[in-house]
Amino acid sequence: MSRLRIAFLLLLAGSANLIIAQTPAVLFNIKTFGAIGDGNTLVTRSINQAIDAANAAGGGTVYFPPGVYLSGSIHLKSNITLFFEQGSRLLASGDPDVYDPVETDQKQWDKFQDFGHTYFHNSLIWGEQIHDVSIIGPGLIYGKGLTKQADQRVGNKAIALKLCRNIIIRDVSVLMGGHFAILATGVDNLTIDNVKIDTNRDGIDVDSCRHVRISNCSVNSPWDDAIVIKGSHALGFARASEDLTITNCEVSGFENGTFLDGSYKRFGPPPERNGPTGRIKIGTESEGSFRNITISNCVFDYSRGLALETVDGAELEDVSITNITMRDIANAPIYVRLGQRMRAPEGTPIGALRRVNISNVVVYNADPRYGSMILGTPGHNIDDLKLNHIRIYYAGGGSKEQAAIDPPEKETEYPEPYRHGVMPAYGFFIRHARNIEMTDVEVSYLKEDVRPPFVLSDVDGAEFNLVKAQHAAGVPSFKLVDVKNFSLFRCGALQDTRLGRVAQKEF
Hints:
Shape: elongated
Low-confidence stretches: 1-24
Number of helices: 4
Helix content: under 10%
C-alpha cells in the first residue's frame, strides 16, 4: 500500500473518530416523545418528558431536529444538554396557561428590583438549583409569545437560571427574548459563548454570579441593555458578582430583528427616549457588590456607551476595561456613577467605587450633550480611577449657555446620563472624585463646541499627563471648582502645572 494511500486512510479514520467524539453518546430525540415540528402543535410535554428521561438515565442530550416547536415552560434538570440542530426553532407560545406560575414566596422582594428579576418559573426555559447543564447548537430560540413587560401572567424570559452551577450556553441564537433573553442569578461557573441575540429588552443579565465567562457574543437590544452585570436582591440577600470576564463581544441598538437578518436598520433621528440602548453595563441593580471583573476587545455600534454604576450600596472595585471601540454613541461614551438611590433593605450603607482602569478606547461621533461623566455623590467620592490611551470624537455643537450649567446631583434617582441634563463640558465632567489619573487621553469634536473640554468640581487629586483637547478660540481647556492636588504634565501648549488648592480657576 502506497504511503499516500496510508496517509489518506489515517486522515479519514481521524475524521471519523472526531465525528464520533462529537456525537452525543445518549440521545433523546424530542420527536421520539411525540413532538411535532409544525409550529402549531404545542409540544411542551414532549420536551419535558425527554428532559426527564435524560435526567433519569444519569445524563444525556435532548435533541431538537429541524422543525418549529411551539412550547411553554421547559423545566431544565441536572446533567442534560439541550441541542438545537441547524434548522430547528423553539417557538415561545403566547398562551399564558402554558407557562409555569411565578413563585409567590418571591413577591416580598419586588420592591428591591425590577419585576423580571424577582421571578424565574414564568420563562420559556428555566432551571433552579441544577448543575452540569448545556444549551447548545446552531438553532434558534424565538420568544415570539414572550412579554417584555412586567406581567406575571405571560412568559417573561427566554432563559432563566437561578442558583445553578456548571452551565454552558453556546452557539444558539435568540430572537425577541422577552424581558430578558438570558437571566442568570446566583449562578457559578457559567460560560456564554458565541451566542447571537436580537431582542426587545435586555440581552444577557448576569446577576450575583461568580466565575463567569461571556465571550464572542453579539447582542442587539435597541430598547434596553445588551450585556449587564447586576447585584439585585432576587435571592433574598446581597451576593457579590465576582470573577467575571466579558471579551470579544459586539453590542448594538439596530431595529429589532435586523441584526439577525443582516439588514442592520437604524431608527434615523434619535427617538424621545434618547436613542438606542444596546450597551455593556455594570450596575443599576447594585445591592450586591462587583469585584474582579474584566471587559476587553468589545465593539459598540449605534448604542449607548459604557456604564459603571453602583447606587444601592454595592462596592464596585478592581475592574479593568480595555480595547473598546465605539461608533455613533447615543449618550455618554463613559459613564461612571456612585449614587445613593438605595433600593435595598433599610440600613444598607452607601457603596463605593474604586480601583477601576479604563484603557485603549476609541470613540467616534458621540452624543454632543453629555460628554463623559464621572460622578460621585456628595460626601462619597469615586476613588482611584485611571483612564489611559483614550480618543473620543464628539459630535460637538455645544453653546456658551450650556457651558454655564451646574448639573443637578440626582444622586437618589435612577442612574442614567440623560437624567443629569446637558453637561458644561463637552469632553469630561468630573465631580465628587479622588485620585483621578488620565494619561494619553485626547478629546475633540466634529463641529465647533464652545464648552470647555474638562470641568472638575469637588475633586481631590487629579493628574493629567499627555492629555490633548481641542477647544474653540477663547474657551479654556480646564475649568476647576473646589479642586485640590491638581497637576498637568506635557499637555500640549498648556504649561506644566501643580496646584495645591483652587476655589475656582480656568485656563
